[in-house]
Specification:
By secondary structure, this protein is α/β, with parallel strands linked by helices. It folds into two domains: 250 residues, Alpha-Beta Barrel (TIM Barrel); 54 residues, Alpha-Beta Plaits. The chain contains 13 helices and twelve strands. Helix 2 packs across helix 13. The two termini are 21 Å apart.
């Protein structure tokens, strides 16, 4: 059960991306990281994505102790955004160069690859890129996804809209009786407000039926240093000090240094979630069409993935 790896504090969660609908990448990532020792996979809330992840697990040959989670959010959550190029584009190609998902080509954005990280926006001097919310109606998408067989639903409670947060959180609780996860960061909230929100959301949940994913700096894990992962550890400390009777995962800027820094700071976490950095270090390999058949390429990627998983679980 998912609870077992959490209680053993041996949970490595691969974040494929809440907005990532690139089926080829997802299949390759899930297969690779399953063989590398990853036990928990975070996915876009889409039937095709869930089925593709299951296919990746089948290809890995490991069916036991592998768990799937789908992520959902509300308008305003950066994880739910998609980038669009408007008429102000001057074809400077800076957005194409910086995109970690390689979703931009010839002034067009391939929406299924876009994860809403907004790095393209940060380098555009012409205001040529708009970020648009890609949220979905939960009552329409969740029942069919639940029927496919998942192990957790993660709700990104990253917004100032309290009413919508609690409305959707209550809906999720009504639709799904399994493990739930709450992803929070401090972008819109003070420390006191963050804990108050979590306590309100947890008031109807049984102890240790919920994961808190402490998101330091969402989608910022491109570098492998202590500074990049500092905010994930800091946010986790705030959650830990609140004694909420939940499981705690570190995320947002996480990398191979996260476990070391968390231990130095006395964080008693149950696992680490890694997205941007985990995808980046194997990107050149998983993009090849014969990735699953080419043993040389696959094993190079597997060695890299194993080292990251080991760094987080040791």
């Amino acid at each position: 059960m998912l609870k077992d790896i959490l209680e053993k504090r041996q949970c490595f969660k691969l974040v494929c991306g809440a907005g990532n609908e690139d089926l080829k990448e997802i299949k390759h990532l899930v297969c690779l990281y399953s063989l590398a020792g990853c036990s928990f996979f975070d996915l876009c809330a889409d039937e095709k994505v869930v089925l593709t992840a299951k296919e990746g697990l089948e290809l890995s040959g490991i069916k036991d102790n592998r768990y799937l989670c789908v992520s959902i959010g509300i308008k305003g959550d950066p994880h739910m955004n998609k980038a669009f190029i408007n008429n102000n584009c001057k074809s400077c190609n800076k957005c194409e160069e910086i995109c970690p998902q390689k979703a931009i080509s010839q002034n067009k954005i391939e929406q299924k690859k876009c994860i809403g990280c907004a790095r393209c926006v940060s380098v555009c001097k012409n205001s040529a890129i708009d970020m648009v919310s890609n949220t979905k109606e939960l009552s329409e998408i969740l029942p069919s996804i639940i029927d496919l067989g998942i192990d957790c639903i993660e709700f990104h409670a990253i917004s100032e809209n309290e009413d919508e947060i609690y409305q959707k959180w209550n809906m999720i609780n009504d639709l799904y009786k399994g493990m739930l996860s709450i992803c929070v960061d401090r972008s819109n909230l003070s420390n006191k407000m963050l804990i108050s929100r979590l306590k309100n959301m947890l008031s109807t949940r049984k102890p240790y039926s919920t994961i808190i994913q402490a998101d330091g700096s969402p989608m910022s894990g491109g570098k492998d240093d202590f500074k990049t992962t500092l905010q994930a550890v800091a946010t986790s400390e705030i959650v830990q000090n609140a004694n909420l009777n939940t499981y705690l995962l570190l995320s947002g800027g996480t990398n191979s240094k996260t476990a070391s820094l968390a231990k130095m700071c006395g964080i008693n976490y149950h696992g680490i979630s890694i997205g941007s950095y985990a995808r980046k270090i194997v990107k050149e390999y998983i993009e090849t069409d014969d990735f699953l058949e080419n043993k040389i390429i696959f094993n190079k990627a597997l060695k890299i993935a194993k080292e990251l998983v080991h760094a987080c679980l040791s």
